[in-house]
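Researcher: Predict the fold of TrkA family potassium uptake protein.
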Amino acid sequence: MRVIIVEGSALGINLARTLIQTGSEVILIERNPNRAKELSETLDCTIINAEGTRPDILEKAEIENADAIVACTSHDQDNIIIGLIAKQFNVPEIIITTDDIQFMTVAKRLGFHHVVNSPQTTSNSIFHTLRGIDTIELSTMMRGDVRFISVIAGKKFAGTPLTEVRLPKKSIYIGIYRNSDFLLYTDNPTIEEGDEILITTRVEFIDKIYRGFKGDEEETDMP
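Model: Structure tokens for TrkA family potassium uptake protein follow.
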């Protein structure tokens, strides 16, 4: 697997080390020259000292041949820009990190499937721990090819009861996030544009579900 990581943050470095250990080809782009020099001496991968939001630099990293790109800079806007460039090169897997929950929503509305908001996940876990609640992250419960995903409902779904939007076989709704509210699937909420819909499905149906919930799709059913 060929993976481009943009910026040598703590997350980027740890991910690079893990990927290198598993035999993946890693290209790490770091804008700080001193940091880039240090990483070139400690990591067994290609280090490019440049600005990762520039298309010519991503082309230098041979983005057209990448299996995945991880945008984990300290600026949410830059990560989204990198993701948009990667889309133009049809990179199969695009992972974006965000610190601001608002940019997480923006990224999802732009069609990015893999958006990681570490501060939210960590703060929620600590909050529940302080309240004496033992929570389990959904990601730790995944087995085999089962996945938990979220999609942003397009305009065409506004006013449609959730149960009327069909999913592929072996898939089921969990509920809807609407601003600060969570609406359970069993309550059969009516969809509003911009709702974040949580779904349990199989890996083979993920792309079909994302395509089906795009606002520009003509067909709502996903049998």
